[in-house]
Structure formats: C-alpha cells, structure tokens
Amino acid sequence: MKLSKSKYIVCLLFLWTTILNVYGQKPDEQLTVKGRVVDQDKKPLPGVAISIQEDKKNKTFNTDGNGNFTIEATTSDVLVFKMVGFGTILKPAGEVNSNDVVLTKSLVDAGDDDLVYIPFGVRKKREVTATISTISATNLPQIPSSSLTNVFTGRLPGLAIYPSGSQQPGYDASSFLVRGRSSYNSNQEPLILVDGIERNFASMDLSEIESVSVLKDAATLAWYGMYAANGVIYVKTRRGSATSTKVTFDAQAGLQAPLQIARPLDSYTYATLYNEASVNSGGAAIYGPAALQAYQDGSDPIKYPNNNFVKDFTKSVAPTQRYVATVTGGNAYLRFYTLLSAYQQGGFYKGGHNETYDANTNFTRYNLRTNIDLHVNKNLDVALDIGGRITNLTFPNQGTAAFLNAVYSTPANAFPVLNPNGSYGGTSIFPTSNPLAMLEARGASTDLLRNMIATISAKQKMDGILKGLSAEVFYAYDIAGLYRSGFTQTYATSELLPTGLYQTYGTATKVDYLGNSFSGNIKKSEFWAGLDYDRTFGDHDVKFSSRVSRQIYSVFGNLDTKREGISNRLTYGFKKRYFIDLTAGYSGSENFAVGQRFGFFPAMSAGWIISDENFMKGTSSFLDLLKLRGSYGLVGNDAIGSARRFAFNDFFSRSTTGYTFGTGYTGTTGTAQLALGNPYLTWEKAYKTSVGFDAKMLKQSLSISADYFYEIRKDIATGSQLPSTLGQSLVYVNEGEASYKGFETGINYNKIIGGVNLNVFGNYTYQVSKILKINEAANLPAYQKSVGHPITSVISPAATANTGAGYISSMYKSMGLFQSQAEIDAAPKQLLSRDVKPGDIRYVDQNGDGIINGLDIVKTDYNFVPNHVFGLGASVAVKGFDLNFLFQGTVGSSVIINQLVNAGNTNNGFLNQFSVDRWTPQNTSAPYPRLLIADRGNNTANSDFWIRSSDYVRLKNLELGYSLNDRFVKRLKLSQLRFYVSGLNLLTFSKLNDLNIDPELPESGFNSSYPYMKIYSFGVNLKF
Q1: DSSP-assigned letter for residue 129
Q2: Phi, psi at residue 338, to the nearest 5°?
Q3: Cα 522 to chain center, whole Å?
C-alpha cells in the first residue's frame, strides 16, 4: 500500500515519539549526583568548578581534595565542569552519577575553542596535519547583501573570490578559486559543502553560519575522491547553545550605489563625434550646423532631443534592508538553534509607472532554519536540521540586458522619450529602445523560488562491541522549484515626421496576465553511513572513520545524475606531539564508461610539534608552539569540460540536413553522427603536495601559518588530433597536463593592551600555473603554442561581431598608433581592414613576412586570475566602541577593454564615453584609435593594445559599532544593545580609476551589465 505524504509524515512523527518514549529520559526528575573528577592519568582534581547550565541562581560547587563532589539536579540539567588549564566538559546529570568525569589538560591549540571541522569529524587544531584555513562567522562584518560570498573576500589564505556574471539583485554571485588553476577544461569551482552536504551557501544568512573552512590539500580532499580536486569550501552551521538560552535580533537598513556606471554622451558631443567617424569612413558629415546648434541650446527638444537615459532611468542609490531573529538553547536531552531572517534589495531603475505592476527590479528573500540535537540516551544522539528559503525576484519583461543596453547605449538624440501627442518616442533605427516604454508598457515578471533542505543523522555508541566504536547514519534531502507569474504587455513607438504625421512602430496591447510556468524543479538526496572508532591507549591516540555514500541529483526532464563512493580516514597520534593521517577515497562517476567509472584516491599527511622537543626548550620564552606538517596524495576531477553527457557513447542527431527524393523541392530530414564517443575517457588526476608550518608566539598572541604547495594534473581532457581523412572528429582525449605552484601565509596578532582589545590579521597567496601538455595543431609556430604559458587568459565578456567573446590569450602585439602616412608606407602591410590610416593601431610582424595577418597572432601570458591575492585588516575594541576593517587586493591580473571602448553597433556609430579620447591630427597622444563607422577590423582585433592591468587595493568593508554599558542595558532587560554602521566596497585604488571601470568586474555598469554595488548600512543588534 502506498502512503500519502501526510500519512507518511504522521508515521514518522509517531515512530520518533516512540523512540523518545522508549529510550529517552524523562525530564525534571530530581537527582542527587555524586561523582569524582580526575585528569587523563586518573589522578583526582580538587577545586574543579561545577555548575548547572542556565541555573538562574548561578550556584557553583567545587570538588574536594579527592576530586569528589555531590550536587542536587534534575534529569534535564546539564552539568558544566571547568578548571583553568583543562578543557571544559558538559555532561547530562543523569549520566554522571557514580562515574568518573575526566578532564583533559589543555595544550596549545587544544582548548575548548580550538576545533577544526573536517569531513564527518572534528579535530583539535593541534592534531590537524592537513592544510585547512578557517574563519568564524563572529569575525565577519554584517553586510546587507543578497550574496553571502561578498563578506569572505580577502579573509582566508589560498582562497580567491571574484564577482562573476550579472550583479542583478538575486544573481550577484561570486566564483571561488582555491590556490590556483591546474586544468584548462573547466572553471575549477571548488566543492561547496554545508554541514557535509553539497549545497550552495551564497543565499544563506550570515547568522546561520558558525564557521567557514577551506580544505586545500590531498589530506582532506581525498575523502571525496573524484569530486574535490579543486578544493572544498566547508560551511558549518550554528547549533544549539551548550551554556545558555539566547535570543537575538538584528535590524539593518542601507543604501546601495553603483561603483561605476556608463556616462552617456550628450547630443552635441555625440553628433560631433558621429560626423567625425562618418568622414573618417569616407562619408559625409550627417549633422549640420543648425542641428549642432539646436543640440546645444535645446531650442527644439522634440526634433533635436538631448536625453540622459542613465540619469532619467537609474537611481544614484537604492534601498536594502535585513532583519534576523535567532533563538538558541537547550537542556540535557535537547539543544536547538532557530533562525528567521528577511532580506530586501531594491532595484535601481526609475521613471516608469503602471497602475497594475511595478517593473523595477526588486528582490526579497526569507530564510528559516532549525537545527535540533537530541540526546536520546547515553549511547544514542540524533540530529535533525530543517531549513527553508523563499525568494521573490521581480524584473521587467524586456529583460535586464535589453533594458540596460537601451539605457547605456541609445544615443541621446535618438528620439524624444514622449512625443507631443503623449506617445512613446522611437524611430525606424530605434523602434524598441525607449526605456520608459520598457518599464511602463512591456510587463513585469516575478520569479518565486522555494527551497527546502532537511538533514537527519543518528550516531549510536557501540562500546558493548568495542570500546570507542560508534555507527552513524546521515541522510539529506533537498528540493527546489521556480514558479514564474506576472503581467504581459506590448507597446508601440512613434516618430513625428516632417509632414506633421506620425509613423508608428510595433503594436500596443493592454495588460494581461502572464502565462504561469514552473521550472527549475530540482531534487537532491545524499546518504552517508559508516563507522567511527576513537580510542586512547596511554600516549597513543587512534581515530578511524569509514563511510559509504551515494548522491542522486534529479532535474525534471533529464536523467538523474548519480555519485557514489567509499571514504576512509585513519589518524594516529603519539604523545600529542607526533601525528599521521591516512585518507583514501574510492569513488565513481557516470561520466565514464561502465567498468571504468571508479578510481582509488589515497593521501597521507604528517605533523610534528617540534616545539615540545627537549632541544627546543630554550625557545619557550617566546615560542609557544611550532608544528611542521606536510601532505601528498591523489585527488580526482570528473569534469570533462564542454563535452556532452555520456561522452563515452556515440550519439546521432535526427535533425541534420538530409536528401531530396524524387521531383520534390523539400529535402527530407537526415540523421548524422555527432563527434565520436571516447570509451576510454577518464577523470583528471591531481597529484597534490603541500608542506608548511603553524607557529604561536609571545604567549599565543601572535599566530603564523605558511605553506608551499605544488600540483600537477594529468589526464586533462583536450581536443583530439585525428587526421581529417577520418571524416569525423573525436569528442575528447585525456592527453593534457598542467601544473601550478605557490606559497600562502596567514598572520594574526591578538593582544589586550591596557583597555584596548587589538586584533590585526593578514593573508597572502602567490600562485603561478603552467600548461605542460595540450593537443594543438602540429604546424603551429612556437610563438602560438600554449605549452609553457599559464592556464588562464583574459576574459572578453561581451559578445559582439567586432570584439569577440570568451577567454582570450592569443592576440596581436601592438606598437602604438600610426602617426603619419609615411609610417604606414614603411611598415608591413596590415590586412585586417581595407584601409589603414594615421590613427590606426600598428602591429608587430611576428614572422617577418612583411604582412600582418593571422600568422602574426601570438600566445600571451595575460590572464584574469591574479598571481598575488592578499587581505589585511584589523579590529579594535575599547570602552564600548569597536572598529573593524579589511583591505583586499590582487596583483598580476589583466583585463581587456576592447569590449568597452568599441562597444555599440552601427545604429549608434560605436560611440560611447570613451570615444572622446580618440586619436585626431590635433590629439596624436590619445589613448584610443581614430573613430570609424565601417571597416573597423584593424582597430577592433584582439591585441595587447587593449590590455590593462587590473591590480587593485580595495577597502572591502568597514564597520564601526557602539555597545551601551551593561548597567543601562540590564534595565532594559537585555544582555546587549549595539548600534553600528558599515560599508562594503568603499574605496578602490587601481590603475583603472582613470577609465572609471571596476577592476574586479570591468563590464559592470556598461554595455548591458547590472552595476557592481557599494553598500552603506546602519544596524542595531539586541541580545536578550
């Protein structure tokens, strides 16, 4: 019999209640707890402070000279055992009676807060032999941003974060790069995990997160076998408080403003430049003296308009706000953390009004999370995490790109926005480019995206079988669905003709409901199960974990995507000084043929606390800890670039050009074979090496970590070089090879000086990549080959007929601009356009044949991935005031500005704000070539003439806060009341400042891209 969803949930709740009734403890039964506190050597500890968690009377008891104690409590109480120099222990009162409580002496990096989360495990920092960088969410600024990734930029060594794609509200995501790139067939995005499950955290609220860690070397990545060669971002969410019940509320209001945005030409400047471009192209001046005069004096705004679409249809600032409420607490058998947040980001469009809908971009998001930990009995712990997210995004039906392209690129003199008769202005050249009509009469859509996540896990101690043994089952289920609704409408534009009549373009319709649609329906389930063993034998610590896993990813209309594997980890420690870890994953991917889908990925790491050795005792006055560590291992990557799914099989297309039979004129559709499948296709193999140290000095106030890393990646998918005589191409072959190497370091200084709490931190990463093998045409000259060059290249994001698009590393070498006809006559003949004249770009004849053509293109090292990434910041707290800031920057990356300077089309004459700085006979030192409307190939070809350094330093965020004094706050029945102001992307120092473009995302605010925003906000934080 098949159960409905409601009956299924009822059955689960009944089963859950039965388990709690059978195995759970009944709360609030009175107990007299007696016991003894001892150290790890079983010696009694006198003077240990014992209290009851959240006891309103705040009573504290101490152990006697023999470590004994007696305390009155209930079964729902949690006892807290504290002693200076030892780790704090929390135990349910019902599990303490007549048993010894063991306190372990805290060593450096082994205290209560020195926890590092690893896949399905937790370690003290002292034990960690892998390269892991971690930051606590409490050290991050509160920024009202729709993308959480913005607050992590520049915070962790080895992690580069850069904005990518549209910055439209709800889509302002960023891309991650861990250490560097060693593959050229994918973007190398790391695996992102939330509580061990593959999930995106960009849309989470910051208050959901406890910490974020970056796993960078094979010692931890091998656990995930074939899926983690590009690194792992490991997000740990917050859980119920172990010490108290707390209620918090945060409220923020802010303003966002474009960092950079297009500055359109006024009508007079535009017309003057258009005349110049037309004459340069062999034509006549289009605008006469009367028109130019009218543009200047504004005497006829209908016939000679002078619009500023950017000013009229975009705001200088737009609102944003964020509200977060959390409740956390618990007792001996239940702990919980609950969060509810709301976020709103307004769009920066303006000028349109429709009584039925508002077409301005608007984004709202609601987050809900509840993490529950159940201590069913002394052997069984159960965790249940439930989360939900609802987002609403409203946008004009015209589309963000089309609307912004009209605003940025439509000439100021194209048409009046409104005609004298009230109709929308337009012309035969610009019939659909009226921004007012786009907002008022084109309709608007709303995307409602709903996400639900659920995770349940159970861990059972199995000391009856083997002391220290436990079993865990872990299951996660996520669903998401997108529902689109809204209003549809079309508009017409009109042009006032010299006859006094109007020429109409398009057909206007009344508002109607948009056909509702569902899309983006996703289901994902992930299952892990296995054993853990944790045991100490004198000076020997042994920890072992083993898991089997399976993941199923379902998208409506597609075949399920599946992954599965086995993961194992063995940790051995001796005298808490010598550590070794062995990790191995055995995993598979359906991207490869049956029988060749699984691989084995082993790794080893070791650590040595050298500062504990006798020969280092002389350094104890300033050196608290020095740990040397290193790792080596193999990790895989099953991504095979742009190859089709199941590329190991042959496929046929049924819609290719066919044949004409008989006497008919219409051909019959044919069938053709696609690129040949490769049954031997396999995964990339990343051999990772990492060597480094961790040090603490000056009474642990100064911490330093540093690592050297090297990776070589083999079996990279690259194009095949089958001879054309075969008549068919092969999809991909595993014949590529590349590497990267580099250095990273992180420094932190924390000291209380007088009444000032000072924390200074910094991080730096250097990396360089190199292509070792790649299939290329056999007859390429050496200067056009990729081998020996970096993996990455510059990005040309705007797809136009003139500038191209995509990743660009091959280009012409330039020699400035021709200044005279004599120079042109003496130079090699350039064949990139019909005519070459003074003011055109001059190129290097690479092969010396006297001609400039495709044979003179060279492979370059310009790329968008920087060689150097760094962050430097500090936090200061004194007398209720606190200040924290972060400077972040990069060195060694480049951008290509071809798509900006040469933006446009024949309709607007390729003219924009950069056109003012063009070459003329009177301005021969200009940075850009002469203006042209046609025959532009010579000056728009990809060349280093358009390359600029995108090195920058940015004040990424600044936050200033003030907390009211405790006496006043207690009168308000609060535990804390704090006010603060903050900012994001506040100041930028870059060589691109003169161009007024952003070094992180140069195209933002230009062409058709939503601008990258700076944010100013004010907030209040209350804790009850």
Answers
A1: -
A2: -125, 135
A3: 20
Amino acid occupying residue 435: P
Residue 210 near residue 239 (C-beta atoms within 8 A): yes
Other C-beta atoms closer than 10 Å to the C-beta of 275 total 20
* Residues 942-963 pLDDT 10s: 999 999 999 999 999 999 999 9
The string of pLDDT tens digits covering residues 427-483 is: 999 999 999 999 999 999 999 999 999 999 999 999 999 999 999 999 999 999 999
Mean residue pLDDT of the chain comes to: 89
Return d(Cα 537, Cα 251) in angstroms, integer. Answer: 51
Looking at the DSSP bridge assignments, the partners of residue 37 are 101
Q: Residue 882 in contact with residue 875, Cβ under 8 Å? A: yes
DSSP assignment string, 489-558: ----EEEE-TTS-EEEES-----EEPPPEEEEEEEEEEEEEEEEEEEEETTEEEEEEEEEEEEEEEETTS
Q: Worst-scoring range by mean pLDDT, 97-111, 441-455, 529-543, 818-832?
A: 97-111
Query: pLDDT tens digits for 767-782?
Result: 999 999 999 888 899 9
Q: Are 955 and 889 a contacting pair, CB within 8 Å?
A: no
Q: Is the dihedral of CA 346, 347, 353, 356 positive or negative?
A: negative
Handedness of CA 992, 998, 1002, 1005 (dihedral sign): negative
CA distances from 564 to 478, 575, 597, 603 (A): 17, 37, 10, 19
Rounded Cα–Cα distance for residues 150 and 143 (Å): 8
| Nearest CA-CA partner of 587 in 644, 641, 522, 528 | 528
Report which of 697, 695, 694, 702 is spatially closest to residue 760, judged by C-alpha positions: 702
Tokens standing for 864? 């968008």
What does the alpha-carbon distance between residue 152 and residue 150 come to, in Å, rounded to a whole number? 6
What is the three-class DSSP state of 407? Answer: helix
Residues 887 and 404: their CA atoms lie apart, in Å, by 31
pLDDT, residue 608, reads 97
Cβ–Cβ < 8 Å for 538, 560: no
**In 778-851, alpha helices (H):** 821-826
| pLDDT band, very low/low/confident/very high, at 23 (cuts 50, 70, 90) | very low
Distance from C-alpha of 134 to C-alpha of 214, rounded to nearest angstrom = 6
Provide the terminal-to-terminal Cα distance of the chain, rounded to the nearest Å: 50
- Residue-level pLDDT at 834: 93
367 and 340 Cβ atoms separated by less than 8 Å: yes
- Helices in 868-977 by DSSP H: which ranges? 898-901, 937-940, 966-971
What is the C-alpha separation between 680 and 587, in angstroms, rounded?
Answer: 17
| Out of 52-66, 105-119, 461-475, 640-654, least confident range | 52-66
Taking CA atoms, 197 is separated from 237, 474, 546, in Å, by: 12, 10, 16
348 vs 364: CA distance, rounded Å: 15
CA distance 347 to 256: 9
Query: Which alpha helices (H) appear in 347-432, and where do they start and end?
Result: 400-409
Q: How far is CA 864 from CA 895, 975, 995, in A?
A: 6, 48, 18
For residues 829 and 813, what is the distance between their CA atoms, to the nearest angstrom?
Answer: 15
3-state secondary structure of 131: coil
Residues 6+ apart with CB under 8 A from 61: 49, 50, 51, 69, 71
Question: DSSP labels for 638-675?
Answer: ---TTPPTTTTS--EEEEEEEE--TT-SSPEEEEEE-S
- Residue 25: per-residue pLDDT: 45
Taking only the tens place, the pLDDT of each residue in 241-297 is 766 788 999 999 999 999 999 999 999 999 999 999 999 999 999 999 999 999 999
610 Cβ neighbours under 8 A, 6+ residues apart: 616, 626, 627, 628
The distance between the two most distant Cα atoms of the chain, rounded to a whole number of Å, is: 110
Angle between helices 289-297 and 267-280 (to 10 degrees): 160
